[in-house]
């Protein structure tokens, strides 16, 4: 019963977090948001509200009305609307950092432009359409001394750290295989969603698969050396609704990923449940992680030792010295981003190399199946 109260309290507070008061001795980072994207309120605006050193100062949207409505709903001071609005926002000298939740195929162009304008960037996943684009963005960020982070938010939550710590403790011996899944029932994504649009960088592997690949690499502590198999179910000639792929990793590890944007109902009637699980099989046992993506809601880490068949269940909502149970993965991520920009050491990070390797793995799956990488951006940096 108490865990039910805990769940309700966590979820309610995470959706409507307490407003943080600015710190007297620290100038808040002023953020601008590119696009009135559906994900922005949950992944960025709510977390900023509870951060004492961050403020959402501006939003830009291609339609003036949409920009104004978004700003009004979320109490955003400055509004840029119209066809040149993204660039106008980037040119605003008041703005320190950009949140880029544009469609994947526009990540490269607008991150390059944001960096060129001298802004730090929190960039939605997957970082770009190709690893080459990811490399170029990080090189520009490095050259300009700016912070660029691919928003693999789950990596900042204590759950991911606890799972990794159990793997690295050696308690269960070496990793032998991993299985990371992310799928949602049919009906959530509409047919005109950006995820089904090839020119905008769509596909299940790009959208949800980027997490499954990232979690595979993170929990196994290694990068794939080969794609053993890659199978898709397609909704159009180049767009995968579902992808299942297997990889080999150093140390004879075999890994499977599964992602699905639209799982059909069972027996055509019973709606499928979302799956957000990871299983790490080791020499002496296994770790089953339920809900590694949105762990604030609810999660479990079940550790089973093969020899005595004993299991224990762990939870990890906070770090010993950081966080609140209601902090979402996004709130932990923002904490790290602000700390990095302020020159402090973040509690976690996703590096340039990590982001590049992740895009390489995505492209290697599309290459194996023959579907091919998503189109390169036509934007040529000046
Ligand atoms: N971290 C997370 O948990 C999540 C991350 N994401 C990522 O965030 C990004 C956006 O996803 P989501 O919010 O669901 O997408 P939306 O379609 O809701 O938002 C995309 C935004 O991009 C802008 N845009 C600019 N050009 C185009 C174009 N040609 N076609 C369509 N939109 C355009 C639109 O802004 P405007 O208002 O100017 O018209 C729109 O608001 C993706 O990269 C996705 O992978 C998505 C969901 C969850
Ligand atoms: O990043 C994401 O996380 C949650 C998913 O439902 C969504 O498709 C994806 O973009």
From TrEMBL:
**Keywords tagged on the record:** Oxidoreductase
| InterPro entries, per database record | Gfo/Idh/MocA-like_OxRdtase_N, Gfo/Idh/MocA_domain, GFO_IDH_MocA-like_dom, NAD(P)-bd_dom_sf
Q: Which GO terms describe its molecular function?
A: D-xylose 1-dehydrogenase (NADP+) activity; nucleotide binding
The similarity annotation says:
Belongs to the Gfo/Idh/MocA family.
Read off the Pfam families from this record.
GFO_IDH_MocA, GFO_IDH_MocA_C3
Q: Which residues form the GFO/IDH/MocA-like oxidoreductase domain?
A: 162-266
What EC class is this? oxidoreductase
Q: Which residues form the Gfo/Idh/MocA-like oxidoreductase N-terminal domain?
A: 29-149
Q: What is its EC number?
A: 1.1.1.179
User: Is Oxidoreductase among the key words of this record?
Assistant: yes
TM annotation in the entry: none
Q: Which PANTHER family match?
A: OXIDOREDUCTASES (PTHR22604), TRANS-1,2-DIHYDROBENZENE-1,2-DIOL DEHYDROGENASE (PTHR22604:SF105)
Reaction catalysed by this chain? D-xylose + NADP(+) = D-xylono-1,5-lactone + NADPH + H(+)
According to UniProt, the name of this protein is D-xylose 1-dehydrogenase (NADP(+), D-xylono-1,5-lactone-forming)
The residue stretches assigned to a coiled coil in this entry are none
């Amino acid at each position: 019963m108490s865990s039910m109260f805990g769940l309700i309290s966590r979820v309610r507070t995470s959706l409507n977090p307490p407003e943080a008061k600015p710190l007297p001795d620290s100038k808040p980072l002023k953020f601008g948001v590119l696009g009135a994207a559906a994900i922005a309120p949950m992944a960025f605006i709510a977390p900023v509200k509870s951060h004492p050193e961050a403020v959402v100062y501006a939003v830009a949207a291609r339609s003036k009305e949409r920009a104004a409505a978004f700003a009004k709903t979320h109490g955003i001071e400055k509004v840029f609307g119209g066809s040149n609005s993204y660039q106008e926002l980037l040119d605003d000298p008041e703005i320190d950092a950009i949140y880029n939740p544009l469609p994947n195929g526009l990540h490269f162009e607008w991150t390059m432009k944001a960096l060129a304008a001298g802004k730090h960037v929190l960039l939605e996943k997957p970082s770009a359409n190709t690893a080459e684009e990811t490399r170029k963005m990080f090189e520009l960020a490095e050259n300009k001394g700016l912070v660029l982070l691919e928003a693999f938010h789950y990596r900042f939550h204590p759950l991911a750290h606890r799972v990794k710590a159990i793997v690295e403790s050696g308690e269960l011996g070496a990793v032998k295989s991993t299985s990371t899944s992310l799928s949602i029932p049919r009906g959530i994504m509409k047919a005109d969603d950006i995820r089904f649009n090839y020119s905008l960088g769509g596909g299940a592997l790009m959208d949800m698969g980027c997490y499954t690949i990232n979690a595979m690499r993170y929990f196994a502590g290694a990068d794939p050396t080969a794609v053993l198999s890659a199978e898709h179910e397609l909704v159009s000639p180049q767009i995968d609704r579902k992808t299942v792929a297997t990889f080999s990793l150093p140390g004879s590890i075999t890994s499977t990923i599964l992602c699905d944007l639209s799982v059909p109902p069972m027996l055509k009637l019973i709606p499928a449940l979302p799956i957000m699980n990871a299983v790490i099989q080791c020499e002496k046992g296994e770790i089953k992680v339920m809900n590694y993506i949105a762990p604030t809601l609810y999660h479990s880490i079940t550790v089973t030792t093969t020899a005595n068949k004993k299991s224990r269940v762990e939870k990890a909502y906070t770090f010993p010295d950081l966080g609140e149970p209601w902090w979402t993965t996004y709130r932990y991520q923002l904490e790290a981003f602000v700390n990095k920009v302020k020159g402090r050491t973040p509690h976690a990070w996703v590096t340039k190399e990590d982001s590049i390797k992740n895009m390489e793995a995505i492209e290697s799956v599309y290459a194996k199946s023959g579907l091919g990488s998503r189109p390169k951006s036509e934007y040529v940096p000046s």
